[in-house]
Design a protein that fits this description.
6 helices, Nucleotidyltransferase, domain 5, disordered C terminus, globular, alpha/beta
Length: 199
């Protein structure tokens, strides 16, 4: 069972990001504040939940949350400030646009930069321990996937509708064959030296 709160504050926000390890597209973060009576038996870390269930959970979370927000940080910024800073920036942007100001922030992972004067706590594997972080992981993942599907038609050869920008073999082969797009992260090692292709 996922826990509701980490702190003793009543307005606690969970935040998480998606797309950190991708070669293309934004890193996307979400922040979610859930009401005390929130219950959902299938909500879990987005990686443990099927795509069909994530698509079911997203409107459920949006309808029942006290507040939620999602923010993208795009490749141009990722290349300028690096992926860790871009992930933290996306979380800050998501928290900043919540319609309710949180009193405490719980963050998936082990890195966070203080946001304003709000106390926070990083929690390793927090998305499989706390409801609000799990909810944020679902929103971050579904909004990012939706964005990747929306740019797929522009460059169908990279198969972003399937790989969502992650470094699959097909994605790397397409980069080798067609080069990169404005959506690729130029600071990432897009084709590792060890990828020797016998064509």
């Amino acid at each position: 069972m996922l826990k509701f709160n980490f702190s003793n504050f009543s307005i606690e926000c969970g935040t998480d990001e998606a797309g950190r390890g991708c070669l293309s597209g934004p890193v996307t973060a979400a922040a979610v504040i859930l009401p005390k009576d929130f219950k959902n038996s299938i909500l879990n870390d987005s990686k443990q939940v099927s795509e069909k269930k994530r698509d079911f959970l997203r409107p459920y979370i949006e309808e029942h949350a006290l507040a939620y927000s999602v923010a993208h940080v795009f490749p141009e910024t990722i290349d300028k400030i690096n992926i860790l800073n871009a992930s933290l920036l996306a979380m800050h942007k998501a928290i900043e646009t919540l319609k309710t100001k949180p009193e405490f922030i719980i963050v998936d992972g082990n890195r966070f930069k203080p946001f304003q004067d709000i106390p926070s706590k990083t929690i390793i594997k927090g998305d499989s321990k706390y409801l609000s972080i799990a909810a944020a992981s679902i929103l971050a993942k579904t909004y990012r996937d939706e964005y990747m599907k929306s740019i797929h038609d522009e460059f169908p050869m990279y198969q972003w509708n399937q790989n969502k920008g992650y470094p699959t073999k097909a994605h790397r082969l397409a980069i080798k064959e067609y080069g990169i797009t404005e959506y690729h992260r130029k600071s990432f090692r897009l084709l590792p030296e060890q990828l020797k292709l016998e064509l």
